[in-house]
Amino acid sequence: MRSKKTQQILERAENHFYRGDYGEAMRIYGLLLRDFPDLGEARIGAILSDIAVENDDEAQALFEYYQVLKSEENEEAERIIEEMIGSLDDALEKISELLEGAFGSREETENGITYADFKELVALRGSFRRAFEDIMFSTRVVITEKEELLDFIQQLVNHGFNEMAMRYIEGAAVAYPGEARIRELIEKLKG
User: Fold this and answer.
1) C-alpha angle with apex 179: 185 to 76, nearest 5 degrees?
2) Tens of pLDDT along 27-84?
3) How many CB atoms lie within 10 A of CB 86?
4) What is the rounded distance in angstroms from the CA atom of residue 95 to the CA atom of residue 116?
5) Helices marked H in the chain
6) Comparing 174 with 7, which gets the higher pLDDT?
7) Contact assessment for residue 136 and residue 164, using Cβ atoms and an 8 Å cutoff
8) Residue 95's closest CA among 40, 150, 16, 134?
9) Helix (H) or strand (E) segment spanning residue 143
10) What distance in Å separates the CA atoms of residue 63 and residue 126, rounded to the nearest whole number?
11) Among 36, 66, 38, 39, CA closest to 52
12) pLDDT tens digits, residue range 130-140?
């Protein structure tokens, strides 16, 4: 049984997490872990705070589900969430491999152009298709964010690069399950 003070500190960390102040939430969870290394709620909170820095929506969804499991007094709550985090990590690794396979290794992408630069090239050439065909064999487009990936896939679909789009969609669907725009792209490709 934990003390009332420990419970209050956990609640303060949770409030920071809900407000999107992940750095402060992680700091508080870290302090709790220093004093109580076996405190599962602090461990899960720290892990989700770390994930939230790059994957806000996914971390918030996992955090909310964890809170539901705790409110139901599910004794397996920590194990369930840790397995889900492991699945998320696997999915993110898969999308990273997909992007690396499509755009080359990290060393190779250093010679590529950013997605923002590619979009400027599209504007200069007046056409996504023309710009993409100009660079597709000579350089790589470096995509670093979910929104960039989804926009790029949308442009591939819109301009008839369906086979290439499907390769990206397969990885994106694993990395971002439930993403409505991915389902829309799949339906567009089917039609």
Assistant:
1) 150
2) 999 999 998 988 989 999 998 998 888 778 778 888 888 888 888 888 888 888 888 8
3) 10
4) 20
5) 4-18, 22-35, 40-52, 56-71, 77-103, 106-109, 115-125, 128-135, 146-158, 162-175, 180-190
6) 7
7) no
8) 150
9) none
10) 44
11) 66
12) 888 877 766 77
Distance CA 56, CA 13 (A): 16
Cα separations in angstroms, 14 against 20, 42, 133: 10, 10, 49
Total residue length of the chain: 191
Under 8 Å CB-to-CB from 183, ≥6 apart: which residues?
Answer: none
Residue-wise burial string across 143-180, b where 16 or more C-beta atoms lie within 10 A, e elsewhere: beebebbbebbbbbbebebeebbeebbebbbbbbeeee
Q: Both tokens of residue 21?
A: 């102040």
* In contact, 12 and 24? CB cutoff 8 Å: no
Residue 177 φ/ψ region, left for φ over 0, alpha for ψ in the -120 to 50 degree band, beta for the rest = beta
Under DSSP, is residue 72 helix (H, G, I), strand (E, B) or coil?
coil
Burial of 71 (0-12, 13-18, 19+ CB in 10 A): exposed
